[in-house]
Sequence to fold (670 residues):
Amino acid sequence: MTSFPHLFQPLDLGHVVLPNRVLMGSMHTGLEDRARDFDALAHYFAVRARGGVGLIVTGGFSPNIQGWLKPFAARLTRPWHRPRHRKITQVVHHEGGRICLQILHAGRYGYHPLSVAPSAIRSPITPFTPHALSKRGIEYTLADFAHCAQLARGAGYDGVEVMGSEGYLLNQFLAAHSNHRDDMWGGDAERRMRFPVAVVRRVRQAVGKDFIVIYRLSILDLVKDGQRHSEIVALAKAIEQAGASLINTGIGWHEARVPTIVTSVPRAAFAEISASLRQEISIPLIASNRINTPEQAEQLLATGKADLISMARPFLADPEWVNKARSGQPQRINTCIACNQACLDHVFENRRASCLVNPQACYETELRIRPAVKSKHIAVVGAGPAGLACATTLAERGHRVTLYEQTDDIGGQFKLAKRVPGKEEFGETLRYFHTRIKETGVTLRLHTQATVSDLNGYNEVVIATGVGPRSIELPGIAHPKVLGYAEVLQGAPVGPSAAIIGAGGIGFDVAEYLVTADPCLAPEPQRWMREWGVDSTSDAPGGLVRPEPPPPARKLWLLQRSAGRLGTRLHKTTGWVHRASLKARGVQMLGGVSYVRIDDAGLHLRIGSEAKVLPVDNVIVCAGQQSRRDLYAALQKQGVTAHLIGGAERAAELDAERAIDQGTRLGARL
Ligand code: NAP
Ligand code: SF4
Fold:
């Protein structure tokens, strides 16, 4: 018996039966590009196969050099590439899993001068203009896809996924704005569809019948002149005819200016679109994007919206996701909070992916949590992300751990973050740590401000006392209209107009909170679609219509002293979403300001030589953080050695990724 009967129903694909309805979607980790990283990559997949996932898809491998994502990026093009791939397939099969290779031709998204595309039109997100493929070039490319699939079969993969979404080469053929050809591969929608369909046909011919062929189909392009829904339905039918075993779904090209996977996108926001496509085809359809809990996945399957559920990042966060769901323990899942911070943001910075809530992800061979040689008695002070990660890792290893927290609950800065509209997922991490504290046996002392004498007698002391807001000096800073960000996020009343001093991550979060009429309203797909101009019901090109952002709850100014655009230091894959969301609701963002004073009239400032008064009801200070180290200093004075982690160690550029990573690593070492 399982609480998720639809999720754990096997799926018969004819030549193979998948044990459940969970697909680990393709995710580039940065380990794919170099042969020497394949041992670590194989280990990464083996851990996920052991975790019970029904079918795994690798990160993208190019079928030829022109299709590289970047110079010397992952490819499977030669027989001598096979042995490194066998390392992966062998360990996955040994763990009882199944794995498909994703074939990804980047087309004009290739970050190199050899890139090709249907037409020589540069994408807005790459500096290289691609070469237009000649007719012969198209034939060679088709042959390369087929050859790559054959090599994948030879390397022991159970199938391939043809990457036909996110704006890569196959999409570029499909959309009128990137395909200006007037030969048999371009022109009307039917001719633009020929290349992707030919790819699937050639791949199927190359691999035979008893091999999985997944086609990842863009069901919503979210770009101007993208495909219409009717064209997408026609494509799906043609792909089925051409021999695909499964259709996976993708949402939005990389150049789209609508967010598709960040945490502010409501869960399963695109499920209705998958559902409508499922009616049109007879092969199984896989739903994807912002599905991260077994409850959500079960509901989508039970209501017939999809046949399988694809999740990629949730398996970075918790490789045991499937086993925990199967055993009826979803509360034990370390849920992906869709922050992108340690996965996609790393990949875009050419760093190895990992996971904010699970620093072991992609570091399985390097960061091992082993039982302690000798059990020690350890105090951890502060139950923010760093302290929680450290305390639970120590206790998992067999140490006796007491965790001191001066407030009434665990979470530290996460308690504030989860109040920000679009960041509700942070609450899942707190639920996870509550469960972890219980299962690892950490003794939690809430409402307890640990003193030096409390910490006597422990073998080790860890100080994770976090950060407090930086106080700033400004005439009028004690005026009653001035509030700190923590007060605001905890519900202090704010008037109809406000100015925010400081435009870092927290300034943006506070702006989002204050501009939203009801910050406690649960995220809801239809409202979100209207806000971003997404229309899944009409036949609008690319699924785009005019955005209708909700009216702002108040007049807001977001300010910083540094010149230039605000929010440039926010994270790569999420910063633009915050900027666009605030801009759409009329938040005034001003850089290069000097603060002069605060009084009854408002906030006085200068921009260059111009003096200005912002006539605001409140001024909210979001001017960064300071480490809280009083206890650490007192311990040092007494000659007690302690380990300092998280924001208490370094407030500058503090974020939860560093805090959890540092806490886990110390916990694994002591
Ligand atoms: P931050 O990113 O360092 O930003 C601080 C802001 O305050 C800057 O805009 C800075 O710009 C301004 N500032 C600094 N000193 C000032 C002074 N003396 N007077 C006036 N303005 C001053 O800090 P944060 O926004 O507190 O974010 C901290 C970290 O938390 C970031 O790394 C972020 O990734 C992470 N984060 C956390 C949360 C959360 O919920 N806990 C949310 C989002 C982000 P100028 O100096 O140009 O004025
Ligand atoms: Fe999910 Fe954030 Fe981890 Fe990426 S870093 S897998 S988005 S929790």
